[in-house]
Amino acid sequence: MIAFSIVLAAAGGVFGYSEIFTKGIDRLPDRPCGGAVARDLVTQALPSSRTAEERGRMVPTSKDLAFYCSVSTDDSTLSGEVRGTDSSVGTWRDHFAGPLAGTSVEVVAADVRAISTPKLATVYVPCTLPQHKKGSAAEAYSLTAEARTIGPTRAKGDELRQVVVDFAYQLLRHAYEVGGCKEARDFPDALPRLTEGRVVEEPVG
């Protein structure tokens, strides 16, 4: 995929936070990472624990943005990031649902697309950021979210894959609003369920 124009050490405009809660997931904010995601998704994904930690960071740059969010309990983590990209739908799909990705499922709601693979979830939406010049994209300006779990999980199999897709989608919506994408868009409350999607056997443009 065309290289992300991300500079993590960008001067100015960097917002970050980290919170540790000693009473577990139930003491996390209703929407961790600055309001980006629903706590119940984290509860579905991660095992119960006496301690929980959330970390989030927004990094706007002169060309794009990056937003990061992770929630951890003991040895388990649910994490994701959203990046500004210059990538068409076809390039995005080829990158994430290629032959080495395993069984991939794609769902679509208007021009918002998500792919679930056995290892991660990714969501794509067209987005022209305020710092983008109209008509200057090599392919297409967009935001791309990625999310995954690390370590033991409460949910398993298809249930876990759905939770990770939903987590990635909520991160994407948050970054879209905070980043000030120029396109007016009404996001659905949730994407179609993976059971309604199509198996990506051969990526198509």
Major beta sheet, strand line-up: 1-2-3-4-8-7-6-5-9
What is the share of helical residues?
10-25%
Q: Which spans have pLDDT < 50 for at least 5 consecutive residues?
A: 1-15
Helix/strand/pairing category = alpha+beta
- Total helices: the number is 4
Basic shape: globular
Mean pLDDT reading: 87
Major β-sheet annotation: 9 strands, antiparallel
How much strand content do the residues show?
25-35%
Straight-line N-to-C gap? 14 Å
Secondary-structure element order, as H and E?
EHHEEEHEEEEHE
How many strands in all? 9
- CA gyration radius, whole angstroms: 17 Å
Describe the structure.
By secondary structure, the chain is of the alpha+beta class. It contains 4 helices and 9 strands. Strands 1-2-3-4-8-7-6-5-9 form a 9-stranded antiparallel β-sheet. A hairpin with a 4-residue loop joins strand 2 (52-60) and strand 3. Helix 2 runs antiparallel to helix 4 (157-179). The radius of gyration is 17 Å and the shape is globular. The two termini are 14 Å apart.
Provide a brief overview of the structure.
The chain is an alpha+beta fold and 205 residues long. The chain has helices at 32-35, 39-45, 89-96, 157-179, and strands spanning 15-21, 52-60, 65-73, 76-86, 105-109, 112-116, 121-126, 141-150, 198-199.
